[in-house]
Amino acid sequence: MLQALHTAATGMDAQQVRLDVLANNLANVNTTGFKKSRADFQDLLYRMVRAPGTSQAGGVEIPVGIEIGQGVRTVAVQKVYSIGDVKSTGNQLDLAIEGNGFFQVQLPNGERAYTRSGNLRMNSVGEVVDSEGNKLEPSITVPTNATSVTIGTDGTVSVTVSGQTASQEIGKMQLVRFVNPAGLQSMGRSYYAETTASGPPVAGQPGASGSGLGTIAQGMLEGSNVRVVEEMVELITGQRAFEMNSKVVSTADRILQSTVNMK
């Protein structure tokens, strides 16, 4: 009976992790470029009382064994990189990636981070930066006398300057992809970091044939891929699963109490 207590406890721990993940998803339902997470579980080792195929007296083979499970554990919490809803903003430096890929920015410590959040801005010298002030890589600087900025689906950046009618190209944006994006490390602030599990970043021109990269949509932003109804359903089932495991603990406790009180 003590095993039932421990088994149910592992179930409660697993459902607590699940609820924590769901809570974070729901908290970021309006976060630009946010990717929801999913908790994955697997059963623990089994206590083998009798192995399948054991022979009894007379050489009779038993087709089914007796294996008693020891509970569950959290094996992974991974990001789900499905595309979020894209909405129009009208801001010429709001960019959405339609397909695979990440923007690359340089952090103050010199390291590089990757993000799906495309709400870009210009700093005081015209450099294109993100909301944290980190420069986009490769660096693009908009002339101070530019009256408009146009960014093509292939990442080509063109500007129209004061006194001229023809636009001029000032640079090209790049996107990067990873062999295993689920292996990226979440840094917070919508940033991801490269790990050995993700593999190195592969840079390329947006929409280029064979690159596996999506295209860029100017004046658009990708929203969170969290679906509130789906998360609420998961939240309810997680809550009920936690309650059922706590009920097992209560039941096992009452049986132990009855055993202790036997005369």
Mean pLDDT: 93
Coarse shape? elongated
Largest sheet: 3 strands, antiparallel
Q: What's the number of extended β-strand segments?
A: 20
Q: If strands are numbered along the chain, what order do they take across the biggest sheet?
A: 8-7-11
The N- to C-terminal Cα distance equals 19 Å
Count of helical regions: 2
Q: How many domains, in number, for the residues? A: 2
Structural class: alpha+beta
The radius of gyration computed from the alpha-carbon positions, rounded to a whole number of angstroms, is 27 Å
Beta content comes to 25-35%
Spans of at least 5 consecutive residues with low confidence: none
What is the percent of helical residues?
A: 10-25%
In short:
This protein is an alpha+beta fold.
Layout of secondary structure:
Blueprint: H1 2-27, E1 37-43, E2 46-50, E3 66-69, E4 72-79, E5 86-88, E6 95-98, E7 103-106, E8 112-115, E9 121-122, E10 128-129, E11 135-137, E12 146-151, E13 156-161, E14 168-172, E15 175-177, E16 185-188, E17 191-193, E18 202-204, E19 215-218, E20 220-222, H2 228-260
Antiparallel strand pairs: 1-4, 2-3, 5-20, 6-19, 7-8, 7-11, 9-10, 12-13, 13-14, 15-18, 16-17
Helix pairs in contact: 1-2
Question: What brief labels describe this structure?
Answer:
263 residues; alpha+beta; three-stranded antiparallel beta sheet; 20 strands
Describe this structure in words.
The chain is α+β, with helices and mostly antiparallel strands and 263 residues long. The protein folds into 2 domains: 2-81 and 236-260, no CATH class; 86-222, no CATH class. The chain has 2 helices and 20 strands. It has helices at residues 2-27, 228-260, and strands spanning 37-43, 46-50, 66-69, 72-79, 86-88, 95-98, 103-106, 112-115, 121-122, 128-129, 135-137, 146-151, 156-161, 168-172, 175-177, 185-188, 191-193, 202-204, 215-218, 220-222. A hairpin with a 2-residue loop joins strand 16 and strand 17. The longest helix is centred in the C-terminal third of the chain and has 33 residues, at 228-260. The radius of gyration is 27 Å and the shape is elongated. The model has no long low-confidence stretch (mean pLDDT 93).
